[in-house]
Amino acid sequence: HQHAELLSSLGSAADKYPKPEGVVFSYGTAGFRTLANRLPSVVFRAALLAVLRSKRLEGAAIGIMITASHNPEPDNGVKLVDPAGEMLDQSWEAHATALANCPSTDSLISTFTTLAAHLHVDLSKPASIIYARDTRPSGPALIEALRGALSVFKGNLKVVDLDVTTTPVLHYVVKATNDKSGTYGAPTEDGYMEKMAEAFKVLMGSRGPLQPLFVDCANGVGALGLAKLSKHIASTLPLTPLNDAIGTAGALNSQCGADFVKTKQALPPSIASSGILAQDGARACSLDGDADRLVYYYLQDKKKFRLLDGDKIAVMVAMFIRDLLKKAKLVEGDDALEVGAVQTAYANGSSTKYLNARGVPVRCVPTGVKYLHHAAQNFDIGVYFEANGHGTVLFSPSTISALQSATPHSPDEANAIKNLLALSNLINQAVGDALSDMLLVEVVLAHRGWGAPEWDAGYEDLPNRLLKVEVPDRMMFQTTDAERKLSHPAGLQDLIDDAVRKVDMGRSFVRPSGTEDCVRVYAEAKTSPEVESLASNVSDLVKHASGMTSQ
Ligand code: G16
């Protein structure tokens, strides 16, 4: 009887959010992402799945984030967060896709019922949902659709609305809410800021105040997070927000933000024209639209743009942590702890070579935080960053216990252990966070006594180019070998290999984007002219294979 009532109220609620005709949805690299006006039904159905998952997991809190991160303002998206603060378990992505594509309310109800049975979900169990959105103008309407779905479950559902906040804050709150030990931190945005600020103070000790840091907020929700964080740490690290116009229509991610800087390999025009980076020792960083990506940059000799991307962050952080482990006498013998790095095919060849040469093991996985995160969990301390600035550092539970119970034999050892533990509190253990990563970078620079140029001097990036090619059907491009090779269309990989062989130190790969309707082409080579020609040749091959050109 109860179930019949539930399904009937589900039917009436779902009628308000019909699936648009002629669109096929797919749970991609970071959930569903497309034009916002296509998404109300998708958000409604994603919320249904979140409730099923929570019920299946004995009422553990599941997160729902409404964001399209780096995508243009007219887009939006929805993704689900698992109880440990990680991305939705991959085996459930297909269920999200199935619900999203049901053509009618009837088929939605029957798919929902089938899924509940197949997944052994007891619908009478309690559930708990935590949700948030970024600053996109389309957010409130999508939140309405989300609430429409949650309203179906009435009293048996606990709901926390975090309102407008960053993606990493949502992940943190989900993790902290489900943390039975009660040691991870208070499950609120304030709790998160306090936890980070406290760890930052321990790590900085008597260092600072530092020179002000310019922070490009991509005109997105990071501006709000930055202002909150700033209250806690401004006396040590003064932060100057740039591109923080969250209320200006069309401004989000436009000509600014981490994706713009990384892809264009240039300053946001607003920063270039302001001249602020010509000051002595000036450094700046860019967040993306939901503040989970970070890249740094500065002007060499006050003129030349130099990018310090996710690879540069990974290398600096991995070497810093390894040095702390050495100081703590934890790199040899039975107690040895290993630092490893996880990258994707986009990692600059020079960064991989640098890490390999210094004995840091490196694994390559497909694009997407979900893949990097899981691979990083196989190391005692796993440093994972995508070149585009997504990343974090994971400390395994046994590493934390080993650090907590280690007996130092000197003040230096004690200090190193204290700093390693503080790092595990500073760095978001659920997902990469631009703000947490920014504090991490500043801590390492302060400990090393470096400015941006000294950090940059570690290795020289191979010239590289990332292009987008809009094709009629991006799904005809299928990859293998952690996206480094194409398996389909047949024969295309051989042509790419031929193009690569024509340039010195060449490398190139092609993959369909999981967040935008395009194919991405990456190329690197010894010189800029060679990389430009390689990228353009491979793009031409892609267009030809798509039937867009005749030769
Ligand atoms: C998302 C994912 C990232 C990925 C990026 C681009 O980032 O979380 O792991 O690198 O999309 O993916 P693709 O090349 O498949 O479009 P964000 O910042 O947009 O959430």
Characterization of the model:
The chain has 551 residues and is α/β, with parallel strands linked by helices. The chain has helices spanning 2-15, 40-56, 93-100, 105-118, 139-151, 167-178, 189-204, 222-233, 257-264, 269-274, 310-327, 349-357, 369-376, 397-405, 411-426, 434-448, 452-456, 492-501, 528-545, and strands spanning 32-35, 61-66, 75-81, 127-133, 157-164, 213-216, 239-242, 284-287, 294-300, 304-308, 339-343, 362-364, 381-385, 391-395, 464-469, 478-480, 485-488, 507-512, 519-524. It has 4 domains: 2-164, Alpha-D-Glucose-1,6-Bisphosphate, subunit A, domain 3 (Alpha-D-Glucose-1,6-Bisphosphate, Chain A, domain 3), CATH 3.40.120.10; 190-307, Alpha-D-Glucose-1,6-Bisphosphate, Chain A, domain 3 (3-Layer(aba) Sandwich), CATH 3.40.120; 311-455, 3-Layer(aba) Sandwich (Alpha-D-Glucose-1,6-Bisphosphate, Chain A, domain 3); 464-545, TATA-Binding Protein (2-Layer Sandwich). It is built from 19 helices and 19 strands. The protein has a 5-stranded mixed sheet, with helices on both faces. The chain has a 5-stranded mixed sheet with strand order 7-6-8-9-10. Strands 12-11-13-14 form a 4-stranded mixed sheet, sandwiched between helices. A hairpin with a 5-residue loop joins strand 13 and strand 14. The mean pLDDT is 97. Bound molecules: 1,6-di-O-phosphono-alpha-D-glucopyranose. 1,6-di-O-phosphono-alpha-D-glucopyranose binds at residues 29-30, 69-70, 288, 292-293, 367-369, 386, 388, 390, 513-516, 520.
